[in-house]
């Protein structure tokens, strides 16, 4: 296993994220394609896939995706994983480490949509693609009660927003959803957006503000599918929200949990003291990351069919 110094990882991640936002805004020295490739390589080198996991490209109803198969998986059990990256960067290949660990521990296969990214595809392109991929998975005969959604950062918000959109289109709900460090409010009005700005090791309010401006186009920041703190979430399956105590997104994660609870959605909120953004990536390197992944798996197993 690659050795990782946690503080160095977060510094490098912050730098590469800034490079991508600059390129997407047309302000950086490198092309957006080059910065995305460098970002992917950084994730691949830092978090290689675990043993016993294989990856296959699939066409999920017109959405490119990666199907992850794990040795010993229960037939028909799936996690639909929605990667992070502020809707500007990220892809299934860069997330093989985290998704592989999660799927293997869950004894599940995974589907990771390679949803369209801004600025080429603006909101709600990512939501549309995620719903399409979920619809395709159901059309393959996978039962919704055997499916769990999960995602981190932008993908953490998508793990809720996609289900809101799927519900509105009449699709059956999966067993549960897991929102890791969700970017749930693109208005960025939570108190910790200010109090923890500069404490969060990888994400800052200004970078998020710039990214939101690129992603939203002319859509308002309080659009419910962009910022699920404003969504009608009634009828959604149980949701687990995991957020780090040092994250600028902490207040908005609390707000999302409150909104889900107000809408009678079974909701669990886990706050990990002193953890930074998506600390789960450091599974195998950081005890708190191992615990967070184990807790997420346990939550999924509580709700999956056959458990």
Q: Compute the CA-based radius of gyration.
A: 17 Å
Number of strands: 8
For the largest beta sheet, what order do the strands appear in spatially?
Answer: 1-2-4-3-5-6-7-8
What is the CATH class name?
Answer: Alpha Beta
CATH fold title: Rossmann fold
Strand-residue proportion: 15-25%
Q: Enumerate how many helices there are, as a single number.
A: 9
Shape: globular
Q: How many domains would you count in the coordinates?
A: 1
Average pLDDT figure? 96
Order of helices and strands: HHEEEHEHEHEHHEHEH
**First-last Cα distance:** 32 Å
- Give a quick account of the main beta sheet: strands, pairing sense, barrel closure: 8 strands, mixed
CATH superfamily: Alpha/Beta hydrolase fold, catalytic domain
Q: Low-confidence stretches at least 5 residues in length (pLDDT < 50)?
A: none
Helical amount: 25-40%
